[in-house]
Design goal:
The protein is mainly beta and 103 residues long. It has strands spanning 15-21, 31-37, 48-60, 64-76. It has a domain at 15-23 and 30-76. The mean pLDDT is 80.
């Protein structure tokens, strides 16, 4: 019969916070910020982290577009860490001309 490693202690739950950043105050998000906090016990350490995030983006200022995307980040270290910062750019690449109608 298997026994719990922590029979009396509640399981810690991660906390996820998301927000958008509008650096130039044009009313459109320039960046998205995801903060994940995972409470650890004194005996626990973190050597690696992986994150997957799914995005649904749409805009209709100059051109109208809507797309789904996925972000994957992974990090591994030889010593345990206390925080990890991942910074990246979302780049759009049109591979073919879509059926655009001029009005």
């Amino acid at each position: 019969m298997a026994r719990d490693a922590y029979p009396c202690a509640p399981t810690p739950h991660p906390v996820l916070q998301t927000s958008s950043v509008d650096s130039n105050n044009d009313g459109l998000p320039d960046a998205w910020r995801f903060v994940v906090s995972m409470p650890l016990r004194a005996s626990e350490v973190v050597y690696s982290a992986q994150m997957v995030s799914f995005l649904n983006v749409s805009f209709s200022t100059v051109a109208r577009a809507q797309f789904d995307g996925m972000v994957y980040a992974s990090h591994t270290a030889a010593v345990p860490g206390v925080s990890l910062l991942v910074d990246g750019n979302l780049a759009l690449s049109q591979r073919y001309v879509s059926g655009v109608r001029l009005v």
